[in-house]
Amino acid sequence: MDILEAKNLVIESGHRLKETGLIARTWGNISCRVSDTHFVITPSGMSYDRLTPDDIVLMDMRDMSYEGDVKPSGEKGIHALVYKKRPEANFVIHTHQEHASAVSALRGGIVDVAPELQARFGVRVPLANYGLPGTKKLIKGVEKAIEKTDGQAVLMACHGALVWGADSQDAFTVAHELETVAKGAVRGQFKAVINPVLPETEGDFEDAVVNHFITDYRPVDNNAFFCCDSRRLEDKPAFVVHFPDGDKEFSVYSETRGEPHTAHLYREIYKNRPDIKVIRVVRDESVIAVSMIGKSLKPQLDDFAQLLGADVRCVVYNNKVPKSSAAVCARALKGRHALLLMGVGALCSGIDDSDAEAACMILLKACRTRIASMLFDTYKVIPAIEAHLMRFVYLKKYSKKQ
Fold first, then answer.
1. SS3 labels along 165-214
2. DSSP per-residue string spanning 98-164
3. CA–CA separation, 100 vs 211, rounded Å?
4. In sequence order, what are the residues at sequence separation of 6 or more whose Cβ sits closer than 8 angstroms to the Cβ of residue 396?
5. What mean pLDDT comes out for the span 332-342?
């Protein structure tokens, strides 16, 4: 394939991956084979929205050398590995897609793939042993996993998925069908462990899992927290609270009578965290369900550690004592960008809308991973020292490139 054509195809595919929700920010990477010895790949830490052909890196898979001053993705080694082991593969995608990532944290891979999907995946999707991103340990684990399958995908423990195809469309199809396989594996475990009848909605499914395993928790008034997003006003010592209907907002300059209850909380957060500019409320059923466990959420996936840190704490927000509750929440959010509110959901924050939205996406995936691990009884977290290391590297190398 022509090099420029391949580079443009990678850029187009990056936009498509974001649009379909298979990746966010700079997570994941994409490559395209251009010859028996070379492929092009996305750069390290650059947003997919602003990539140009000059940013896409030409790699020599024989010695992993590359042309130009742009640094290639840190996962270039696993892409080269696929091209070497699978001559029929011409396009490779590494994603952090939601359901496949959740299953990657369960430490068992996917067994008993449905017959109609075995042409792409074989009878099982193997799991590569855990290794920190970009390390030789990760590459070695992926190599062993590829050798165990005749299919077009492997999972990487606590990390995500690696898929490949004859062209970009084929690879996309594999990625989407892998979500179906992964979701089916979790729901199949629900049938085996809890009830042969699956709940109709995703929220009912997640509530059923938590209610089955968690019996000792304090009921919380789910409506005690008036759910409003917020934004700091850059040119004034104030912030805006957005009402849930999206048509109204409340500007807060100083404490006033009649202000939304959440104003106490946001005022306290903004006062203590000058780095936070945007606050989002997450009310997804899976997040509410995990908040009812009443414990800190710890990273089971690499991107959790990178973006959210070593844990997300869980607190009770009491609307009857908003000022003291606000102080408790602000302390729990110290050094973090997400906070579980028991029985309510969560707050996610960031330096801008994109940052806060990414935190919301990662937290949602983390909660669904936690729920899946309850079903499979495989709740294992990334060691704290590795979580802190990934967070440090992310802040130093990647967060400023978004």
1. ECCHHHHHHHHHHHHHHHHHHHHHHHHHHCCCCCCCCHHHHHHHHHHHHC
2. HHHHHHHTTTS-B-S--GGGHHHHTT-B-EEPP--TT-HHHHHHHHHHHHT-SSSEEEETTTEEEEE
3. 24
4. none
5. 93
Determine the Cα–Cα distance for residues 120 and 102; give it in Å rounded to an integer: 20
21, 11 Cβ separation under 8 angstroms: no
What distance in Å separates the CA atoms of residue 62 and residue 53, rounded to the nearest whole number? 23
pLDDT of 399 reads 52
Alpha-carbon distance of 236 to 33, in angstroms, equals 52
Q: For residues 169 and 201, what is the distance between their CA atoms, to the nearest angstrom?
A: 30
Tokens 């050398």 sit on residue = 65
Q: How far apart are CA 235 and CA 323, in angstroms?
A: 26
Collapsing DSSP to helix, strand or coil, 281 comes out as strand
Residue 250 confidence (pLDDT) = 66
The closest alpha carbon to 16, from 80, 93, 82, belongs to: 93
Give the whole-angstrom CA distance, residue 90 versus residue 13. Answer: 14
pLDDT at 225: 59
Q: Which helix (H) or strand (E) holds 282?
A: strand 278-282
- Averaged confidence pLDDT in the chain: 89
Closest C-alpha to 96, from 173, 18, 183, 33 = 18
Residue with tokens 């691990």: 373
Q: Which of 99, 31, 37 is nearest to 368 (CA)?
A: 99
Whole-model pTM: value is 0.90
Residue 132: CA atoms inside 13 Å, Cβ hemisphere, count?
14
